[in-house]
Write a structure and sequence with these properties.
521 residues; alpha/beta; seven-stranded mixed beta sheet; six-stranded antiparallel beta sheet; 43% helix; binds zinc ion
């Protein structure tokens, strides 16, 4: 037992109980106040653990990547794991903060406790004792809870934990971009992975095949759902936990970022007795939230609404929601077929991936149901072509399809730190904006936005209404360009143009809009 604990202790902190040793050595000499103000780079330099040149390299990379200095120095092999944690634990003991950002959340106190009971963690690994990965008092459990709570607190949608060259890397996806979370000792990967697997009711003894699981997590009295996925890499298992926060769902087309006029057009469509409404875009473009907003608008006791989803992300009152379960034989197609026997008025089919599902959805809308679904297409117009390519007859598309919304999410500039672009910036010319009339901004980064320069996301979109003229064009298989020209005459504006509106109103940047629409100027 003790030798196991010693080994892990040595790996994480160096031989002996480093916290006490380091505290005595450094704090007694320098005094608390000095240490509190010290930055990690200076401390490492003073201790002779890195050279000035190494610090300079680290600082330059930090400027470019925004990563934490300790992690960069570590990744370059300039410092050892032991030295890094030694310094971090001194900073922690002194009550000071190492760096603005996440390095202070490495939680030396938790790791210290973990090291003390590491022998039992190893027992869990070999399947002997589950208590320490499943008891609220266990330091490992508290640490994993802290990893999750930190993510939720930062507004993350996903938590990534995986092996790195020299340690265990935790990252958070916030507003669509991955950010550094914390860097843990390599030896903690397996215990942390095991804890996630136990939460997700997955098999901890199996580490050679990918697994999926789900768990509930209580955060400040809010119940969150976690979808946990494990994947074996050559150097250890990788965990991704998606955070689904049912209580935090912002519904309503306006609050998602749809302009009043467009929101009104969409709401008119929702009054239709039957037909098909599609929302398109890649994974993570907010399609589900838009669909839920549509459903919540028409959700009344006297309409019977059914969904088949993969997975159910939020529970809506009154709506009968079901979830694809391939193992049990419940697919989009089989689910939809059964739902049609449940006397629905409105059906939401999570996604039309195959001809069978698409045909059933079209048939449902022909037989008097309002059908909502999604497709993976880049823009609204190509959805028509995609359906034809899947094998649906053009006349069936033209007689059922009513509206197609294509959308993406762009990050919104942090209002605290956004910077006005100089009047001679080329962006004004590119957007055809007069610097005397319009103010454009660029991102910077401050404490409020965690240095990202952006906070929250909004939708950019295009809405294609299938008019009688377009119906007729679909029937005679007219080309995309012709249909686009016709739509534009009727007032169709592309997603990029919608993005430009949002740049001009200071909400986002050209960089963001160009990235998500893949349109360059
Ligand atoms: Zn900011």
């Amino acid at each position: 037992m003790e030798s196991c604990a010693d080994k892990l202790a040595e790996a994480a902190f160096g031989a002996g109980t480093i916290r006490t040793v380091a505290t005595k050595d450094t704090i007694a000499k320098d005094g608390m106040t000095v240490i509190q103000r010290k930055r990690i780079g200076d401390m490492l330099l003073e201790a002779g653990l890195i050279t000035t040149a190494q610090l300079q390299t680290g600082l330059e990379e930090q400027k470019k990547t925004g990563e934490l200095l300790g992690a960069i120095l570590f990744a370059h092999g300039f410092i050892s794991q032991q030295d890094l944690f030694k310094v971090l634990s001194v900073i922690h003991d002194a009550g000071g903060k190492a760096e603005p950002g996440a390095e202070s959340t490495v939680m030396p106190e938790d790791m210290d406790a973990l090291v003390k009971q590491s022998s039992s963690v190893f027992q869990v690994e070999s399947g002997l004792d589950r208590r320490d990965v499943d008891s609220a008092q266990s330091p490992l459990v508290r640490m994993v809870d802290k990893i999750i709570a930190t993510g939720v607190g930062r507004g993350a949608t996903d938590i990534h934990i995986g092996p790195d060259t020299k340690g265990t890397r935790v990252r958070y996806r916030v507003d669509g971009a991955l950010h550094h979370g914390m860097y843990l000792p390599k030896d903690l990967l397996n215990p942390v992975v095991s804890r996630f697997k136990i939460m997700g009711q997955m098999n901890i003894a199996e580490n050679r095949v990918p697994q999926d699981g789900s768990a509930e997590f209580l955060y400040r009295e809010r119940k969150l759902d976690l979808r946990i996925s494990s994947f074996p890499l050559i150097n250890g298992e990788n965990i991704v936990a998606r955070i689904l926060d049912k209580s935090n769902l912002k519904l309503g087309l306006d609050s998602l970022g749809f302009a009043d006029a467009d929101s009104a057009v969409i709401q008119e469509t929702l009054k239709l007795p039957y037909g098909m409404i599609l929302v398109t875009g890649p994974t993570g473009s907010g399609k589900t939230t838009t669909l839920y907003s549509c459903l919540s608008f028409i959700n009344t006791v006297n309409r019977n609404i059914f969904t088949i989803e993969d997975p159910v992300e939020y529970q809506l009152p009154l709506v009968r929601q079901s979830q694809v379960n391939v193992k049990a034989g419940l697919t989009f197609a089989s689910g939809l077929r059964s739902i049609l026997r449940q006397d629905p008025d409105i059906v939401l089919v999570g996604e039309m991936r195959d001809l069978e599902t698409a045909e059933l959805a079209v048939r449902a809308s022909l037989t008097g149901h309002l059908v909502f679904s999604t497709l993976h297409t880049n823009d609204a117009l190509s959805s028509v072509i995609r359906l034809i390519d899947m094998g649906i007859e053009p006349f069936l598309i033209s007689s059922t399809l009513d509206t197609v919304i294509a959308q993406r999410l762009v990050r919104m500039l942090c209002p605290e730190c956004r910077q006005e672009l100089a009047g001679d910036s080329a962006v004004y010319g590119k957007l055809g904006a007069d610097p005397r009339a319009v103010k454009l901004y660029q991102h910077k980064g401050c404490d409020r936005c965690g240095g990202a320069g952006y906070r929250g996301r909004t939708v950019i979109y295009e809405t294609l209404k299938i008019t009688p003229a377009i119906r007729e064009m679909i029937n005679r298989k007219a080309g995309l360009d012709d249909i686009r020209r016709e739509a534009e005459q009727g007032g169709f504006r592309s997603m990029f143009q919608n993005g430009v509106d949002k740049i001009k109103s200071g909400v986002t940047t050209l960089e963001e809009v160009s990235t998500v629409t893949r349109t360059g100027l």
